[in-house]
Amino acid sequence: MEMKYQLGRLYYPSGHNMIVTRLTGLVLLLNLVLSPLTGCTNPVLPPVAPAPPVTPIAPADWTPRDAQTFSHACFAPAELNSQTDAVTEVLFNYNDGPRDFRPPEGPDGYILQIIPLNGEFKSTPLNGQMTFVLFAGSALNEDGAIGTPVNIWRVEKQNLEQYWMPTHLLQGYLFQLDWGAVTPKRANYEFVVHIAYEHDNQVVNICRTLSFYEKWGTPGQ
């Protein structure tokens, strides 16, 4: 039987849920504003079912080599800046609050959007993999060493295409990251996304970080 997934609803402890997030509202508003200015009508996009949630990987699968890459060698080479087809910039969006992916009702994880931009600032699909690492507080300790991850998710090269979400504005990848057995506390966190993609027979590494306060967790949970 074919499984169909819907985007998780924004979860509130009171039990009320909101389907349209702030990011979606912003995209809709921009679409309404920009469409009349262009003098044309947006084409009708076919419905696309979101890909299944991404489950965490075992901490042992995130090797010291992975950590070394994202802490010291995670910037696109400067020579790629002059190549319009190369991705050198990435927008990293986080939909505020945990999401409800599946029964029973309750928070199950986060939704993240990754928008790779080429030299012409056009969103561009990638031939590579993405790793998402969640840290409590900060990714780096006071001594500069990498902290211990709270959770890790990885989307392999062969699976990445299914997470591409076509929209009228800001096309990109949309990921539902399932917490699994680890539920975040009410505290400060930092997400690190490590993108490793292939371009002209070389692997390009790009990392981006995003800090946020998880306000829906329970203190000391």
Main features:
221 residues; mainly beta; Immunoglobulin-like; four-stranded antiparallel sheet; globular
Q: If you had to describe this structure to a student in words, what would you say it looks like?
A:
This protein is mainly beta and 221 residues long. It has two helices and eleven strands; from the N terminus they run ββααβββββββββ. The chain has a four-stranded antiparallel β-sheet with strand order 3-5-9-8, with no helix packed on it. The chain has a four-stranded antiparallel β-sheet with strand order 7-6-10-11, with no helix packed on it. A hairpin with a 6-residue loop joins strand 8 and strand 9. The model is unreliable at 1-6 and 10-39 (pLDDT under 50).
What fraction, in percent, of the residue positions are helical? 10-25%
- CATH topology call: Immunoglobulin-like
Second rung of CATH, namely the architecture: Sandwich
Structural class of the helices, strands and pairings? Answer: mainly beta
Question: What is the CATH domain class?
Answer: Mainly Beta
Q: What low-confidence regions span 5 or more consecutive residues with pLDDT below 50? A: 1-6, 10-39
Number of helices, where a helix is a run of at least 4 consecutive DSSP H or I residues: 2
Strand content: 25-35%
Number of strands: 11
Rg, nearest Å:
18 Å
Number of domains: 1
Tell me, briefly, the overall form.
Answer: globular
